[in-house]
Amino acid sequence: MGTPRRALIALAALAALAMLLVASPASAQANPNAAGTGGIYTCTTDQGRRLTSDRPIAECRHKEQLLLNRDGSVRSVIPPTYTAEERAEREARERRAAELRAAQIDAVRRDRNLLARFPDEESHARAREQALTSVRLAIAATERRMKELEAERVPLLNEAEFYVGKQLPMKIKLLLDANDASRAAQRNAAATQAAELERVNKIYDVELERLRRLWEGAPPGSLGPIPAPEPAASRPRPARAASTASP
Fold this sequence. Notes:
By secondary structure, the chain is of the alpha+beta class.
């Protein structure tokens, strides 16, 4: 009776050992990052040193690491691990790089469009004149209207002279006030038109400077993004002129 029992115990022990041996490789495969799996971690630092360890290498946490088998074959690739701050900085760098790439692509496209539109300085000068024509026409119309308003004001002022020291008739007062308001509006329009004339000229000045370098052989996109022209200096809005006649 003793011998069969000892044999059963021995068989049970052998079975348990066999199960342990079978389970160990599966466990190591399921968790390749765990120490003691029999694998070798290796990486190259930023300084060019090659490191190896039986566990993940802290100096290379921001880089890929290889987990090798004992025979040198690659078992798996361990991706980088970043802190929250490192991830945010990495994402910011990627955004900046993407913005720079987009700006470069846009600069190439715009330079090519400029060269297609303006093969020489004469064509650019014609385009400038055409863009300025509408502004100059508006300025001329404003100047004409200002002269008309000045002419309309003269008889009103002459008539108001008869009422110096007296109550000015409501009709004359309203006509003078309307003339004052119209003249103020035309002065504002003239200031806006002058600023627009300056703005258009600045745009074409910037383009011409860039085009001259492109005509000389600079590759499209090599000059960086096209700078936006500075806005024309703001001009104060003229105050509404007060009627010179006494109410």
